[in-house]
């Protein structure tokens, strides 16, 4: 988005720049399409491409108007200073004020509406809905399209607000929603979900007899569960990323689980709306702070983890600093001799397994990946789980291989990737790899 924003300046402020004529003609439809994409949400990679395309077009119009209304050369210094000041004010408002004013990401549709009126107010007559020479049929069709889209937007907005949302919260790390869904496959109590943005961060069955059974990505029989099943107690466990706290359900009485969570509000939400932490038989503690830095600071006092569980990669903004070679060296300094590192990498946007494979290759580590269950074998409250497990010796991974896991190597089916370090991270590579995988799924190899 930042590259598109800056690129629109280059396009519109060149000699003979300004607002392209086709955008003056189609500006109402473009803004309405953007509104519709907002309601659709970034749940599909096509929606992401649509958002970026429309965002670029809106930037072209906004910056084109600035170019067309620029002052004489003697006042250009103040002109560009005001533009920079406006950008700073906008960034500060979104970062500092919006989390306190809104419980959701409502500034996006508000800005679309403000752009709508600003184009109409600041633009010339070519931005009007009606222009001389437009036929009644063409004008009527245009108005009809706008009305239909507005009705659709209103219906979608009304439907979204009718969802059984029990709790909404927003802070600097994003938006939280607690959503209760009705009876699940005939079981009493229903299902409670923790959503961070549009990403599922954990679920729990509300039936008192079933609430101790982890669900979503952590269901018994899934990839994560198999790692815990093949690690004998007593165990020291470190988990980076709290979510709803479902991992605590696997802790036995002799186990100690330390969560590292960067968002201080996450623990409050997990304890208030879910019972995994309180129901756990193990000793549970939560350390608030960046997981990598917190583990590095405590490297001498808390070494010897049997499992280091990396569970911070399901969202659309992945913490890349947790996947570099230097980060893995920190994890190894905290890992017991026969310990394992789990990378839970289920993600709609990024294919991170090749990155982990290549980055760990230079550290003399052995790895394995699970084969996720297909949708027809999963229950409604279970999610397909993608995992990578690393260990110092290959024998430690044999129990997982016996359960169908595939050792990392030439025959693992993963594409090549450059290792990530603190000095080199290519975030586009896993994004493109995921797009390629989706295209193959749709069109076939």
Task: Write a structural description.
- The chain has 445 residues and is an alpha/beta fold.
- The protein has two domains: 2-128, no CATH class; 214-443, 3-Layer(aba) Sandwich (Rossmann fold), CATH 3.40.50.
- The chain is built from 14 helices and twelve strands.
- The protein has helices spanning 2-12, 21-40, 45-68, 76-101, 107-122, 136-161, 223-229, 264-273, 276-279, 291-297, 325-334, 353-361, 398-402, 428-443; strands at residues 165-171, 174-181, 191-196, 199-205, 236-240, 256-261, 283-288, 305-310, 335-344, 366-369, 387-391, 406-407.
- An eight-stranded mixed sheet has the order 7-6-5-8-9-11-10-12, with helices on both faces. The protein has a four-stranded antiparallel sheet with strand order 1-2-3-4, with no helix packed on it.
- Strand 8 (305-310), helix 11 (325-334) and strand 9 form a beta-alpha-beta unit.
- The protein is globular and about 75 Å long.
- The relative contact order is 0.08.
């Amino acid at each position: 988005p930042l590259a598109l924003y800056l690129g629109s300046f280059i396009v519109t402020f060149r000699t003979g720049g300004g607002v392209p004529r086709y955008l003056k003609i189609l500006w109402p439809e473009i803004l309405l399409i953007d509104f519709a994409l907002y309601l659709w949400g970034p749940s599909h990679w096509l929606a992401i491409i649509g958002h970026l395309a429309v965002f670029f077009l809106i930037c072209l119009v906004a910056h084109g108007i600035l170019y067309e209304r620029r002052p004489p050369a003697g006042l250009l210094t103040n002109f560009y200073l005001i533009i920079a000041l406006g950008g700073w004010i906008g960034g500060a408002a979104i970062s500092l004020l919006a989390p306190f004013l809104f419980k959701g990401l409502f500034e996006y549709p508000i800005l679309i509406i403000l752009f709508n009126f600003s184009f109409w107010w600041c633009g010339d007559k070519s931005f009007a809905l009606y222009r001389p020479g437009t036929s009644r049929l063409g004008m009527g069709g245009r108005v009809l399209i706008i009305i239909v889209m507005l009705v659709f937007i209103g219906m979608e907005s009304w439907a979204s607000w009718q969802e059984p949302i029990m709790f909404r919260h927003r802070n600097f790390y994003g938006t939280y929603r607690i959503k209760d869904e009705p009876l699940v496959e005939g079981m009493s109590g229903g299902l409670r979900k923790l959503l961070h943005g549009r990403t599922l961060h954990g679920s729990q069955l509300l039936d008192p007899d079933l609430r101790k059974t982890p669900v979503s990505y952590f269901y018994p029989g899934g990839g994560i569960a198999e790692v815990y099943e093949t690690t004998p107690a007593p165990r020291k466990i470190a988990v980076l990323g709290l979510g709803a706290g479902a991992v605590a359900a696997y802790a036995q009485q002799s186990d100690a689980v330390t969560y590292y969570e960067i968002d201080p509000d996450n623990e409050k939400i997990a304890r208030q709306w879910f019972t995994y932490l309180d129901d756990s038989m193990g000793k549970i503690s939560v350390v608030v702070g960046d997981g990598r830095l917190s583990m590095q600071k405590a490297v001498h006092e808390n070494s010897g983890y049997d499992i280091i569980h990396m569970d911070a990669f399901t969202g659309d903004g992945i913490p890349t600093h947790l996947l570099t070679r230097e980060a893995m060296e920190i994890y190894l300094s905290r890992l017991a001799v026969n310990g394992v590192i789990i990378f839970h990498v289920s993600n709609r946007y990024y294919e991170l397994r090749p990155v982990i494979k290549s980055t760990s290759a230079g550290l003399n580590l052995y790895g394995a990946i699970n084969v996720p269950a297909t949708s027809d074998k999963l229950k409604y409250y279970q999610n397909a789980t993608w995992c990578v497990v690393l260990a110092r010796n290959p024998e430690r991974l044999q129990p997982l291989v016996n359960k169908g896991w595939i050792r990392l190597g030439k025959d693992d089916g993963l594409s090549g990737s450059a290792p990530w370090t603190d000095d080199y991270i290519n975030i586009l590579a896993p994004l493109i790899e995921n797009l390629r995988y989706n295209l193959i799924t749709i069109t076939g190899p």
